[in-house]
Specification:
With about 190 residues, the protein is α/β, with parallel strands linked by helices. Helices cover about 50% and strands about 10% of the residues. It contains 7 helices and 5 strands, in the order αββαβαβαβααα.
Length: about 190
């Protein structure tokens, strides 16, 4: 009898745990964001497009029709790293009219500030912003910001810089990022 009672209690615990799991399923499914498309599915209106993660992509300048295209692919938000002088206002209007969230962290020619990196991390790590497109004029600033972000979050420098280069990091921006992270200049 004692073994039977123990089995009944055990079975009830398993049933309760399973019921709890089933109750959580709709919430878990609702949190699953649409994946960003691979680069061969995106038109030339989204220049220098790269799939960074399943829910994050990067790009250069967005040409006419790009915002509508991104909306059609299920993007939720755009993070623009260009300065206002590069034409952020029309893009912001287009994004908001399309029902997308729009964020702007203007990155100029100087090293990326800690406050900018903190703001970037908040936007990138907020799952409600996914799928997310991060862009600038050519994707070089995106590559620089991504490299800093990944390195600060604990990725090995070699991994962070490889990811940044894949996105678009090059030239002077890479030299600045290396200096910011205390890494030797290129060629050493």
């Amino acid at each position: 009898m004692e073994g039977t009672d123990s089995m009944i209690v055990h079975a009830k615990l398993i049933a309760a745990a399973f019921a709890g799991f089933l109750a959580l399923m709709p919430a878990a499914l609702a949190q699953t964001a649409t994946e960003v498309p691979p680069s061969d599915k995106v038109s030339a209106a989204v220049t220098n497009y790269t799939r960074v993660r399943p829910q994050i992509a990067s790009a250069g300048v967005l040409r006419e029709g790009a915002v509508a295209e991104l909306k059609g692919f299920g993007f939720t938000a755009i993070l623009d790293l260009r300065t206002p002088q590069e034409g952020t206002q029309p893009e912001q209007r287009a994004a908001l009219e399309a029902g997308l969230r729009y964020f702007n962290i203007p990155i100029g020619a100087v090293p990326i500030a800690e406050a900018q990196l903190v703001e970037f991390a908040k936007i990138v790590e907020d799952k409600s912003n996914h799928p997310l497109l991060i862009h600038c004029q050519s994707a070089n600033r995106v590559g620089a910001m991504w490299t800093l972000y990944r390195a600060v979050r604990g990725a090995a420098f070699a991994t962070a810089v490889t990811e940044g280069r894949t996105i678009g990091l090059k030239g002077d921006r890479e030299r600045i990022v290396r200096a910011q992270l205390g890494q030797p200049p290129l060629g050493r």
